[in-house]
Automatic annotation (TrEMBL):
Species name: Actinoallomurus liliacearum
Keyword Cytoplasm: no
The keyword Ubl conjugation belongs to this UniProt entry's keyword annotation: no
Superkingdom of origin organism: Bacteria
Protein name: DUF2871 domain-containing protein
Family matches, as InterPro entries: Cyt_c_oxase-like_su1_sf (IPR036927), DUF2871 (IPR021299)
Coiled coil: none
Length: 150
């Protein structure tokens, strides 16, 4: 559970710093147009911090880490988010500085999105494996007369 908490905490810090970065670089460059930098802040906070806070609650409820696949989902998702956010930041910074971003940035960003998708799929497989296990425990408790709150 600690690594899930740490991931949420790191993404909170990155999310706040990225918002500060967006504000300061656009102000320093007198940039008023649209840039992907404006999206990095919310993407990191939603896909990073909020996602992992929800995962933390699900871990507490369903012991997701008991499934070996959970580690794969955790690291693949994190890799995908890191690549995606890095490419958004690079593309946005280049836009603010008046430079074109090439096809390589789009290609790498696409790979980041693919990793995010694979991580989510692995996460839902993991969650699906734990939900029946949780229900079986409740059914066993009900059969023996123990309350579900025990």
């Amino acid at each position: 559970m600690r690594k899930i908490y740490n991931a949420a905490h790191v993404y909170m810090i990155i999310g706040l710093v990225s918002g500060f970065y967006y504000r300061e670089i656009t102000k320093a460059e007198h940039f008023t147009g649209d840039t992907q930098l404006g999206l990095v802040h919310t993407h990191v906070l939603a896909l990073g911090m909020l996602f992992f806070l929800i995962v933390l609650m699900l871990e507490k409820q369903f012991a997701l880490s008991a499934v070996r696949l959970f580690d794969w989902s955790f690291w693949v998702y994190n890799a995908g988010l890191a690549v995606t956010v890095a490419m958004m930041t690079l593309h946005g910074t280049l836009t603010v500085l008046g430079h074109e971003s090439g096809d390589a940035i789009a290609l790498v960003a696409g790979a980041g999105h693919i990793l995010l998708t694979v991580g989510l799929i692995l996460f839902f497989i993991t969650l699906g494996k734990r939900i029946p296990a949780r229900r079986e425990v409740a059914d066993q408790k009900a059969a023996t007369g123990a309350s579900a709150a025990d």
